[in-house]
């Protein structure tokens, strides 16, 4: 089980997260939604180990060892090739070779990331995050602004990952992505609660 337990975070006098807690079992997708600026990205960065909470903890995973993180802003090095980005993230030739085959990246390995389409950049970023077989994948709006073809492609790859026992926590405003989730939460005023699809304030 992966557990987020009473996580709190403030920036100056602004309280961003108040005792945020939820659990997830193996193979689950957890979705988090809410208005812009409500703290969703801050929560993901804490779960991924990029940022430290003021209080509370994340247990069941170790940052840097079994967490793959794809932030909303493209994390790839644009002036490097796809192959070089994979080498930067991967910890073994075997893992890199496996992810190249799984994501069918062999035809674009020599291309610079800057030359890729938005959808392909996102697929490569997710592939890089999964190259070392992490237990948890943390995604910030994985298919925002992508066309339907790339959305379906990425959704299929995410489902395949969870069917193999992987876990996903993702922020999204996309109803089709929220529908994929086993649990879905709404973050507002620093508080997390179960998401209802008839909520009009999202």
Structure, explained:
The protein has a single domain, classed as P-loop containing nucleotide triphosphate hydrolases (Rossmann fold, 3-Layer(aba) Sandwich), CATH 3.40.50.300. Helix 2 (82-89) runs parallel beside helix 4 (118-130). The longest helix has 16 residues, at 148-163. The radius of gyration is 17 Å and the shape is globular. The strands form two sheets. Strands 5-6-7-3-8-9 form a six-stranded mixed β-sheet, sandwiched between helices. Strands 2-1-4 form a three-stranded antiparallel β-sheet, covered by helices on one side. It starts with a strand and ends in an 8-residue tail after the last strand. With 202 residues, the protein is of the alpha/beta class. It is 30% helix and 27% strand.
């Amino acid at each position: 089980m992966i557990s987020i337990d009473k996580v709190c975070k403030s920036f100056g006098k602004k309280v961003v997260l108040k005792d945020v807690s939820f659990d997830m079992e193996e193979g689950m997708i957890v979705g988090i939604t809410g208005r812009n600026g409500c703290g969703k990205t801050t929560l993901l960065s804490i779960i991924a180990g990029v940022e430290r909470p003021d209080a509370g903890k994340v247990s069941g995973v170790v940052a840097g060892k079994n967490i793959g993180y794809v932030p909303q802003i493209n994390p790839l090095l644009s002036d490097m090739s796809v192959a070089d980005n994979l080498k930067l993230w991967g910890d073994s030739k075997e893992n890199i070779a496996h992810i190249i085959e799984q994501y069918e990246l062999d035809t674009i390995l020599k291309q610079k990331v800057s030359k890729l389409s938005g959808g392909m950049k996102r697929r490569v970023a997710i592939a890089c995050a999964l190259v070392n077989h992490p237990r948890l994948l943390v995604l910030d709006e994985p298919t925002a602004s992508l066309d339907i073809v790339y959305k379906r492609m990425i959704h299929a790859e995410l489902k395949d990952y969870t069917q193999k026992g992987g876990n996903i926590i993702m922020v999204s405003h996309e109803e089709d992505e929220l529908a994929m989730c086993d649990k879905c939460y709404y973050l507002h005023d620093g508080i997390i609660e179960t998401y209802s699809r008839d909520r009009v304030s999202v």
